[in-house]
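User: Sequence in, structure out. Go.
Assistant: Echoing your sequence, followed by the structure tokens.
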Amino acid sequence: MPTQQLRGVFTPVVTPFHEDLSINLPAFVAHCKRLIADGAGIAISGTNSEACSETFEERIALVDAAIDAGIPGERVLVGTGCCAIDDAVVLTRHAIERGCAGVLVLPPFFFKNVSEDGVFAYYSELIARVNDPALRIVLYHIPAMSGVPISLSLIERLVQAFPTHIVGIKDSSGNWDNLVAMLERFPSLSIFPASELLMLRSLSLGAAGCISATNNINARAIAQAFADAADAARLQPAIAAVRSTVERFPMVAAVKHTLAQQTSDPSWRHVRPPLVPLAADASTELLQALAGIPAMEARA
């Protein structure tokens, strides 16, 4: 298990489904390999992976498929947060056993208005039950979806109590001031904004990279921008154009529809309920808008 600080561009990998909505593992593995080749790491079972629409066994199978296909474990994060601690423990132990770089852990997200003490107890219990020195947790702050924020004071408590296990934060709040506060208060942690645009803006402040849905369709340009300041200046306008275009549509459906176009595989358009594919007029508008952006390219 690597001990260096987590850094880089990670992709919350969207999950391909067959027409019957079963998981298409060969297409998933092929997509993961493309992302690695383009310079990005992968984050399996994230929000944009439709993880909460997948079974426990499916989430384990996705990790196994990636690792068994030769994806380096040090380039893999795994979303293991669940409302039930026992489920989170099993998924987390499995990620560690498969040599993954870390786990991305949501707070328990059903009960709302819970106390900070309650959320602290959840992470404490998870760490105690996993009981493995290789455990590396990236806290997942996405209050708009989870309804359970990870406050700065909670981060401080967790870092003080578990300094070897709490290694990073994914900040999906979209709040610049919150991101800056995290970077200033926790310089030892790997702080990942959920947007490549916020990454480019915050690299000079110590951001560790990004974990962004649009990496699925633009990983090469985003990874180049992360790695080289000169490339960042050159690529930033096109990267921003891709991001702003995709954000006009439901994110998962838009990313999948774009992948269907890039790979010439229409099955990428499938999403699981309650999500729905893009309507015909929206899909036409999306692809026409992306077609004129230099950062985009066809993917075989």
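User: And one key feature?
Assistant: The CA atoms of residues 70 and 243 lie 30 Å apart.
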